[in-house]
Protein 1
Amino acid sequence: MHLKTLTLRGFKSFASATTLSLEPGITCVVGPNGSGKSNVVDALSWVMGEQGAKSLRGGKMEDVIFAGTAGRPPLGRAEVSLTIDNTDGALPIDYTEVTISRTLFRSGGSEYAINGSSCRLLDIQELLSDSGIGREMHVVVGQGQLDQVLRATPEERRGFIEEAAGVLKHRKRKEKALRKLEAMAGNLARLTDLTTELRRQLGPLGRQAEAARKARTVQSDLRDARARLLADDLAQLGAQLEQERADEAALAERRRAAEDALGVARQRLARLEVAAAASARAASRATDTFHGLGAVRERLRGLASLADERVRLLGTAEPEHRGQDPEELEAQAERARASEAELEREVEIARTALEGAVAARGDTETAAAAAEKELATLLRGAADRREGLARLSGQVAARRSRVEAADAEIERVQAGLAAAERRAEEAAARFAELERDVLGAEAGEEGLDADHERAVAALTEARSAVERLEERVAAAETERATWSARVETLSLSLDRKDGAGALLAADPAGVLGSVASLLGVEAGYEEAVAAALGPLADAVAVESLGAAVDALRLLRDDDAGRAGLVVGGSDGAAPAPPEVPLPDGARRGVDVVTATGPAAAALRHLLAAVVVVEDLAQARALVAAHPTTVAVTRAGDLLAATRASGGSAAAPSVLHLTSALEEARAGLDDAVARGEQGREDLVGARAALEAAQTRHDETLDRLHESDAAMAAVAEQLGTLGSARTGAQAEAERHRTALAEATERRHQDAAALDDLVHRLEVAEAEPTRSEEDIAAATEARDVAQRAAGAARQEETEARLTLRTAEERARAVSGRAQGLARAAERERQAREQAAARARRRAAEADRAAGVRGDVATALEALARSTERAAAERAAAEAEREEQRAEVDAVRADVDRLSGELRDLTDVAHRDEVARAQQVARFEQLRARAVEELGTEPESLVEEFGPHREVPVPRPADAAEDDPDPDPVPYVRAEQEKRLAAAERALKRIGTVNPLALEEFAALEERHRFLTEQLADLKGSREDLLQIVAEIDERVQQVFAEAYQDTAAQFERVFARLFPGGEGRLVLTEPGDLLTTGIEVEARPAGKKVKRLSLLSGGERSLTAVAFLVSIFKARPSPFYVMDEVEAALDDVNLGRLLEIFRELQEDSQLVVITHQKRTMEVADALYGVTMRGDGVTTVISQRLREAAEAG
């Protein structure tokens, strides 16, 4: 068995997946400090189950995850996989290769797996412990582990040996057995107490069970007697009910005949009332027509007067419009345009003259400059001749040298510029190539940004929708609470305690309900209708006069108080209201209410003479004109010819409260509906919010991943951009230097040409006369005077041009203003003519209207006469129908009295029958509740037609025949019931569940007694197991200690030649708890205590102790982290010899800086830290390399 591969992903500095292939033998891991060598040891400890963050050189377990660097983002998890070669079967698992993996997420979650299958940490620890690799990890010797061995207590040193010998798993099993014993002791004590308590309860419960058996026999006899008596009552009462139902059928037949006759009479009355109502409507229409024709006549007379006045006004002529002549204004505009054209021509002439003056001034100034230059040349030539040709020749040579040096500098700068431009082009090409490679990533980045923005917008919208719906639901809930409280308050206000409330609560036959509930009132008219009805607003409506009589009798008999009643009649139309002309804004009382049912006609009759007006002034005028009318204001003030009521506002009427209750209920229903709808919408909105949140998180994760990738690309682009910028800056510096050198070269060349010319002039004309200089001076003066005159002419030309332009601007707007004034004058004259034509047409129309009105008035007079005649005929017909209706109504009243008498008899019989039915139902309910039997089955099985069985005597023998049953006698059964009740009373209180409880308690006592015996047996078994474990631990530890002590003496002698070392037990008589002391005496020293040794000797002693354990109980592999760092060359050589011996039985993984340790290795791993903070590994098999060499 040996370690085969170790794979790290995101573990500490190993950001990328890194795999170390480990071979049998010695594998060394080398590298500079801080490169991540010890992270390999930490990874091995971590994957094998290490749980201490400090043992992994961290503050918390999350520190093992790659934390990121400046150029690389942090990772979200760390994963380490260790593959072990199990060909020899050292691990107790049926695989030749075992891969153990451990994953830790930054959120805190972790996963463990064996060969890809999820498992627990305990499973990994138990798997490794069977091969000598325990939780203490003695096979991994990390940095500082040697010092920990030296500072360990004797008991801790014992733990190293126990782990190597495999004793820890036995101790773990012993601890588990002891924990079970402790739990079992508590359970045993509780079980013993419970068994004792059950034995104490069995005695009293047995006595209760015996009493329950006796009571069961008496209760059976009691139930039989009670059932027979109840069945007899049911049979007798059922027979009485059948007889009364037959009498009810005969009375119902008589009532139907009376109702049919009354129905025929009421139908005739209804037809007559309909006809009377039609006649009343016809008479009302005739009256309305008559009054309407009168009103039309008045309106036509007013229209005629208006037409006369309009003809008079339109016949007067309108004042004539006065203004300037448009033609004259047009002529003035034309003259202004001609002046403007002439001025523009003058401006062009002045501009041409200015251009000529400017050209002349330029020519004269050029000639003056040439003359000045010629004079300067002659003067310098004379001066040069005076200075001497030799000096001038020297200046020419020096300037020519500077020109040649400038040419060389220009060539050098041009070469540097070409090189810099070439480097810039190469960097730009590499930059463009990388940009082309990143184009796809940038396009994806834009798509991710758009997706994330859409997800953010969707999430915001979903949150807003949820908030809006929550506000709607909260508002609806608030409104629901408000309306609910209002409904409850109004309902309590309408809960009446007077006679009307008693009637409504009793709900006798014929009561329709309160007037307020049957009458619908338009909003705003509640006070007016309540005042019009007066006390009847709080009254109760009944369907007929008989129902009213019954209600009054009920109130008197029950002493329930007084109540007002509105007596309903037929469903026909109510009497027509009196014909009264209504003031503005007034309405009839019957028009502001709605009523249906038997009481509708009576309610409309009560309001027939009522008119609702705006105020008391209208009410007084209306009542004064029509004394039969009752006027009511909307504020509740009533005024009639003989009575009046009103004043300040009082308590709300029942009508007002009823209307408010209906409004509150409607509001409550609406609030509940809106709340339910809002909650339904809120469920969908929250689901949409969850989906939007999920989408947002997904897009954000993808965007973060893309940002990390783009950051790496951006770093490369930044490097190339810096290179390109540097090259471009260098090229720009060369261009600047080249421009400066070229400029200096041009200046030097110009100076050289001037010097050469001066030299040539001096050599060619050595004796130039003073006359030539004088002539040149005269020519220069003439040219300067000509230039001054040209400049003066240019100034005068500019002044002339400016004056012409100002005159042209002054004239340019005048022509346009005159043209606009002419157009406005023409439009004003056209409008005046149009107005005159309209006035003439309107005058003609007014005259036509005046004639038509005269004709209409003549026809209207004839129509008014006919309307008056029709109104008189309709009034006569209405009086005849009213007399016939009165006669038929008398017949209806007579038939209604007969029907009431029959109804009273039926009601009395119905009340008596209802009482008998109630008693019968009570008996049926008793049959079900007391006996648990349906009434029909009870009568069938226990009725008076059944014989009563006689119980067997108590002293009768078993073979004696049963007594013969006897006929049913009610008195005997009543005596039997009383005797059973007395016997049951003598028994006293009985626990009906005593029999079942006694049987259950007895069974539980027997079960617990058996369990108690089982627990005692299990306890003895566990104590035997503990004893066997202790014996096994002593045996295994004694053998391991003897082997380790022997190996320590040999290893110590090799590491300390001439020295002496041994291991000593602190308590030799108790091998289960004894510790181990280490005695070390190097050669030439008499000390034995470890604390008195030097640092190197202490480290070497710790190595000797660990190596002794390794040799006594070899492990498949060992990991050592710089254990030889404190040793000199001699001791290092001795330790390496021991490493070679350990190599024969175990695999060694050594972290080292020592060259000699590297030389003995079979494989070498180099660990280095890249510039981005990530560890990189390079491997080499030294044996193969040596053979190849």
Protein 2
Amino acid sequence: MDKLSFLLFVGRAGYHKIRKMKYPIAFIDTEIEPKSRQILDIGGVRSDGCEFHKKSFSDFVSFLSGTQFVCGHNILNHDIKYIGSALQDAGINPADVIDTLPLSPLLFPTKPYHALLKDDKLQTDEVNNPLNDSVKARCLFHDEIAAFQRKDDLLKEIFFGLLGNTPEFQAFFRFISYTSEKTDIEDLIRQKFEAEICIHADLAGMIAKHPIELAYCLSLIDSLVRHRKTHSITPPWVLKNYPHVERIMFRLRNTPCVEGCPYCNSALDIHKGLKHWFGFDSFRCYAGEPLQENAVRAAVDNKSLLAVFPTGGGKSITFQLPALMSGENAKGLTIVISPLQSLMKDQVDNLEKAEITDAVTINGLLDPIERAKSFERVEDGSASILYISPESLRSRTIERLILGRNVVRFVIDEAHCFSAWGQDFRVDYLYIGDFIRSIQEKKNMAEPIPVSCFTATAKQKVIEDIRSYFREKLSLEFEVFASKASRTNLHFKVLAQTDAAQKYQTLRRLLEAKSCPTIVYASRTHRATELARCLTRDGFPARAYHGRMDTREKTANQNAFIAGEFQIMVATSAFGMGVDKKDVGMVIHYDISDSLENYIQEAGRAGRNERIEAECYVLFNEDDLNKHFVLLNQTKLSFKEIQQVWKAIKELARFRSTVSNSALEIARKAGWDDSVPEIETRVTTAISALEDAGYLKRGQNMPRVFANSIRSKTAQEAIEKIRASARFDGKRQEYAVRIIKKLFSSRSRKQSDDEVAESRIDYISDHLGIKKEEVISVVNLMREEEILADAKDLTAFIKRSESRKRSLLIVKEACWIESFLLDMFDNPEKVFYLKEINEKAVAAIHDAALKEINITLNKIKVILNFWAIKNWIKRKRPAFSKDQVLIAWMQPKETFREKMKMRHDLAKFIVGFLYDRSSENTGADKEEAFVEFSVLELKDAFERSIEAFGRKISQEEVEDTLFYLSRIEALKIEGGFLVVYNRLTIERLEKDNKKRYKLEDYQKLLRFYENKIQQIHIVGEYAQKMLAGSEDALKFVNDYFALNYASFLNLYFKGSRQSEIKRNITPAKYRQLFGELSPAQLQIIRDHESKYIVVAAGPGSGKTRVLVHKLASLMLMEDVKHEQLLMLTFSRAAATEFKKRLLKLIGNAANFIEIKTFHSYCFDLLGQIGSLERVDNVLKCAVERIEKGDVELSRITKNVLVIDEAQDMNEDEFSLIEALIKHNDDMRIIAVGDDDQSIYEFRHASPRYFKRLIREYGAMKYELIENFRSKSNLVDFTNQFVTRIRHRLKENPIIAKQTDNGKVKVVRYKSENLIEPLVKDILSTELRGSVCVLTYTNDEALQVSGLLLKNGMPARLIQDNSGFSLLKLDEISFFLSRLHSVEDIFLIDDAVWDRAKKELQTVFQNSNKLESCLGLIRDFETINPKRRYKSDLELFIRESKLNDFFGESGETIFVSTIHKVKGKEFDHVFLMLNNFNLSSDEKIRQLYVAMTRARRELTIHLNSDFLDGLSSENVEHIEDKNNYLPPEELAIHLTHSDIWLDYFINRQSQIAPLRSGDTLYVRGDECLDGNGQSVLKFSRNFMSKHYERLHRQGYELKRAMVNFIVCWQSEKAAKEIKIILPELFFKKKISE
């Protein structure tokens, strides 16, 4: 018989006379199997003392025969369903069943209630004993009768009048033979509770509709009146089952009547409440407006409200007073939701200072004991205010806590966070409405819970947003209380500042002028720290306060400031909220705030005492606004980032709709870089946005960990086992005993929904004040000792498509890496260069011929992460460097090695064990099988296995191994105790894999960010108006808050200014970025829509400038964060040039942009150090790794890819681009180049790949055809020439932007030898500006430079360092050796750097390579202005070429081949084309590149006729028919193959003093130094081939010079030796 049938039967039965029965009453209890609902056991005890304890149904019927009444605890809700027929068979009338449960809150309303009760449960220290519980029910029932008899007569009559006819209570009254003739219940209640309830409450309606609920309320009120200092509350089970209790209590005690009555006039009088709680006689007014009083009255009247009170405006009292009054009158709980944990604690502490102890907070700053105390105080009713964060609403434990109390109001602080128009929109706030609705539904509440929203500043649009949010979510209408008054004791001033130095001087001057408590606001944490340090140094004692400081230091600084121990607090905006310091006389904004709201709020922290006059200064520099824009762009969660998170969640939830992952795991899956600031907050925000748009539902944070299967029969038996075991030491024994007692006290065989919740690890931790890790450890130990039964609380998800072999290979790889890394630790603390580790690991794998093992940098990082999480190592990564890490070893190495080997064996065993189990799983239609198992099960299985070799293992070792398998991704494991960081439970609602997060879903966030941009402009406008005159500025501020937002914008930002304030950049910065660009260039910058852009940029068209400004635009105006942007170039020089220009344009932000050469980027992907030897294959390897998914996702997840000189791509480079496109669906590409200048065919470069972006990917093509470089006639001349190239990309000719002409001279010779006439021409020409001579071959360039030098001209050959890395150059090697004096220091100290530079200049002052080396150093300094890392310097040098650093000088004639000057430009170019033929497009392009280097003058010497047809203004064609001889002197540069390398081994002391440019003396096949010592010998190869050939041509070797000194490693030498690469000079023999 179910409960409903039973109650209907009782209702029909009505009253009947008590028959004279043999036994007046029996007490019974049952044990039911929860799943099958079968009766397991029955217990009972009759009034004659006879006991029953059997499962037999027929024997139970016999036991009950002759019994009048049956009594049990929760019998009506539970036992009657199973034994109703037995009662019928025994002849027991259903109307004679008594339940002790509903009686208990009625008769024991006062704390500590009854010793046998905990909420709805009978307290027990035994497991599964219904007989014992029957005995306890008897004791409880007898106490209930006694309690009833002790009640006064009036209350007894009221209870009988309300409950005598109800099914739950009528049997009780008949059993005790209590009746009353009084029928006017309402009159009785008014007599009894005359001054304790509102006399206008609708008692008649309550009596008729909700008599039980009314009785419970009256019982509690009676208790509250008699025991005023005892915090008694309605038990949670009553609130759940009788939801009207809360409303009735509200009506009786917490709703002021309009007419007024003795109770309301006393208990609900807000003035009396203010005096009682806070000692104030009156509320605060704002310019005569009683806003505070009105808002408090609205709250006491149970209205929902929105209060906009200024900083220091008494906001806290406005919600605290109604909360305290509700707590006292109705035991109501007010929940305050605030985003700032520190603010919550401050408010609780401030109340306690006022001796009000009714408030608690539950947040992450509390230690476990404080947290447990807070839970206890909310549960027992001693707290009437609970402060929590929005994130806490996701906690199952918090929800359960709230459901157990009568919640009278939700208060939401910083309510502007609801609005995308507010200054601090938070997506997690959007969950608050859903949470409140869920609480109302779970409590079955007929009326909504009132809500109060508070904010310090809000414009009209924000107010409307908040009101509409609660109207839609909860059908609440808000009353608004907003102050229009301004603080008259604050004096605002804005002081214009030109630079940082002036700003600091002004700050000091202000502090000198007025000595008072002062807050200085800075926009960055590092600036706050630095300013406090500088001020203290300069005699102004100051301390810092910001969000990244240690909590203790932060609190200490705040308390010392409040106490007056120092006067100057330098802080970020985090300081001041909730800080009650009334004597602050000055607030100085060192950096202006990012919104008027924040500025008014921060400035308002001055002059809280209205009797003091306070100053509010802004030290204004317009560039401060740009810093806010940059910060906004860095912290902004972009549309594409949310798409990436959604893509990651789709991937994670591919086989099941609900998944549990940490924010960091999701970020990595989305391809985000771990170093992204606030990464976890960004992920949870993205998830909240996806939840708001309906793509997923985020569940509660609920670890699937339970401890509820108790094996011992009694608590005492379990405690004795604990005490008997040697494995429980002092603390663990104490914890184990407390946990067991908690589990026993929580148990109920009546299987309420809360039982599982009460055995969760987090619940036990929160309620006992024990750290989660310690609870886990003790629960594990109790499982091992068999005090708790083992639970299969772990699940392994095994994809059927993945084989055991694959998982075992992953394990094998990880184990090998771990062993390898362990061997590398030869110091307790060491700096590791991760790429170097990776290379050594790869080499070791190669040497060991382990072909199946694939080592990647990512896999090495996974192991290091695992070690760090387990606290086996400590890591420290320097800022700006991803590839270096300082590792401190925390374990004895050999002990660790043994444990590691055990873990490796165990890992292999577990993989095999779980795969075997998965094959037993019959759900073959599913892609993913899941295997449930436990830690103990694995432990036992391993110890019994052959692999164990008799070894015993601990649970901890099994858990470590499972965590290890999870981290290396050999298995996907969930549940159990593996939750070492906070996991998010996500249910995927949108099942369509093709469905993507759309732009319309992003509108709320987009609106917020657009509004933030406008707010920065608006606060800047305020500053400008203040500089012009404060009256206009004050009206501006008032209008901002008072007017409709659109009206405000139309009033103050007319016409084009509306567009101006939509840009996330100041007007001045906008002009700097885009003001001087041509329309064609601007068109490219402003294209934000095209997915792929190809820019065909002609020579001199400002290609580099366009790219630099486009990069700046991407970062500053197009929401592209630095980590989402990748630029690829073909040379380190180009990368450096871009970085230099960006630094000049956008400042420090440029340091974070990844600008790499193709090869450097691929070496990064492979985790390798770049080298010449491996450069050929690196691109292919990288592409292969990308396709296999073997690279770090964050390295290849990019939103924008920029390619410089895209015409120079070859097949491998284009394959890399295509691999990146494939990985990033929405990646934008901007490729810039000039197919007319593709001159690297020798490395298989071809413009066809550039063109494929248009043909195959539909790229938008732009042409940059304005030449800003060359004179008009030079452009015309080269335009005619370039038309000879076939299939050109540009459709339009190049246009000269300079209207005047330069000079073009073409000299055509008949002679085969052009060097002599070329040099003569140069000598006879009046040279102005920069000059360069271009030749086709290196030999020609060498001869020209030699002849120029011979004729006294300052010529310089532009050399490259082909054949060796610049790292090997003697000058560079020396410089590095001076920096590397300290082995493990990875950051180069400024003093060390400067000293090394000076030593280089001193030691190599005579080297002709010094200037190039200093150029290299200068470039590195420019692009690394703040921090210089050794690894970055080495990479920079490794990728650089000597010809990148020749500089430009009007004094020097540079001589070079065409290839080396691509991208350079000179005033006058001489071009020598000796026997040059235009046999291919590449040759035409080479000549076109050479000609377009010239700015003003171009002189071409050639002995072909292909230029004869070209003409233009001021072009001179000359024909020279003379015959010229080959040069008398020849110079050649020798390479490694031309000299005997091992000869240098024994010549190191002679080489040491030599420098590049020093003279050498030739003797046969060797060269001598100035002392006649032999320093080098030529190789046999050189002597037999080159030397002999020149000899036959009539040349004699006359002299030599040191060209390069480089380091070289000989197989015969232990370390590198120095070798000389000489320059040799030959002279033509004079014919006899």
